[in-house]
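SAMPLE LOG
Freezer: B-3
Tube label: C17
Construct: single chain, 110 aa
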Amino acid sequence: MKNGLSEAQLDDAIFDKWLKKRADLAPENFLNKYHLVEAEYYRIKGNDNKAAAFYGKAIEGAKTNRFIHEEAMANEVAAKFYAGKKELAKARNHMGRAKHCYANGVPWQR
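STRUCTURE (predicted):
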């Protein structure tokens, strides 16, 4: 333990700082990834409102910057989040969007 943190917590803090720096420097490439990590952090901490907001930001950022595979992944993770909260309509919506991205978003097939 260092500074009251376990090795895993310290690794997480270092990664979070690394990713945040990249998101600040190149938001079009990294911000959606940072938002997805934040969404998962808040999901684990039990802050559903912040988790939902960050899932939305991750999805929109990936979509805006045409990272279709990352948009699909963020939608899939959001679907699992909503399914766990018994919000099945939202879960189905996000899973449908994920499937659409996975099926139609392979750049070399366009």
